[in-house]
Amino acid sequence: MTVKDILIHPDPLLKKQCAAVESVSPEIQALARDMLETMYAAPGVGLAAPQVGTLERIFVMDCSAKDAEPEPLVLINPTVVWTSDEKNVYNEGCLSLPEMYEDVERPAKAVMQFLDIDGTQQECEFIGLWATCAQHELDHLNGKLFIDHLSGLKRTMITKKMMKLKKERART
Questions:
Q1: How high is the pLDDT of residue 170?
Q2: 96 has pLDDT over 80
Q3: ω into residue 78 within 30 of 0, thus cis?
Q4: Does residue 18 fall inside a structural domain?
Q5: What is the predicted pLDDT for the residue at 66?
Q6: Residue 37 · residue 1 · CB < 8 Å
Q7: What is the DSSP string of 51-102?
Q8: Separation of alpha carbons 117 and 66, rounded Å
Q9: Domain count, the chain
Q10: What is the number of other CB atoms lying within 10 angstroms of the CB of residue 62?
Q11: pLDDT tens digit string along 31-51?
Q12: Given the residues 56, 69, 137, 168, the one annotated as active site
């Protein structure tokens, strides 16, 4: 397994719509394993393919407690089939926006259908942080970042901070 570089906003790949995965091939399985390795190393609770420069509809997540047994999930070609009317607000962050956190409101529960790493059709109900994470990562597959849920002013401020961070990292 390989830890991949994570793209930092503003990168044009992060704003692109991802293509459906045609088949759960050994290459897609390897990508999923690399994405899990990258997510855990970052550390984070979710990671979408465009964040590692691949424009395919796949994301990984694990919102288990730090001291609990890991519960890694691979979601290929995920679709939302239901969301609750009840909302939750979480202080979201993103591996593509390091050290940036803002409150985002999303449905408290979501049901998604997807293929797992073996290509088996699954349906799962996500609640709380798991629901927030799944919706956040699905947004990535549609070219949307969590800052797109914020006011234009906040979005602009965060984008400027990220541009400064990228310049600083480029110098080192």
A1: 86
A2: yes
A3: no
A4: yes
A5: 84
A6: yes
A7: GGT--BSEEEE----TTSPP--EEEEEEEEEEE-SSEEEEEEEETTEEEEEE
A8: 23
A9: 1
A10: 19
A11: 999 999 999 999 999 999 999
A12: 137
